[in-house]
């Protein structure tokens, strides 16, 4: 009877450890996805800023305000 109880206890601990590892892995993936999204948004923002500055420069050139 003690062997069966020990075996069940071991299996419960093993299952708990596997669940913790899976949760940790899922959190790592979510963190990586969030970081990738953040970098993508920052790159898009930089591109938009550069385009806006270029457009403003073109308008200034066309109106003679850039002299």
TrEMBL record:
Superkingdom of the source species:
Eukaryota
Q: Which InterPro entries is this protein grouped with?
A: LEA1/2/D7/KIN2
Instruction: List, as start-end ranges, the regions of compositional bias called Polar residues.
Output: 1-23, 33-47
Q: What organism is this sequence from?
A: Carya illinoinensis
Q: Where is this region: Disordered?
A: 1-67
Q: What is this protein called?
A: Stress-induced protein KIN2-like
């Amino acid at each position: 009877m003690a062997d069966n109880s020990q075996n069940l206890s071991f299996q419960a601990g093993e299952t708990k450890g596997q669940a913790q590892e899976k949760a940790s892995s899922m959190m790592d993936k979510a963190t990586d996805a969030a970081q990738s999204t953040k970098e993508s948004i920052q790159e898009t923002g930089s591109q938009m800023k550069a385009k806006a500055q270029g457009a403003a420069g073109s308008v200034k050139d066309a109106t003679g305000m850039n002299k």
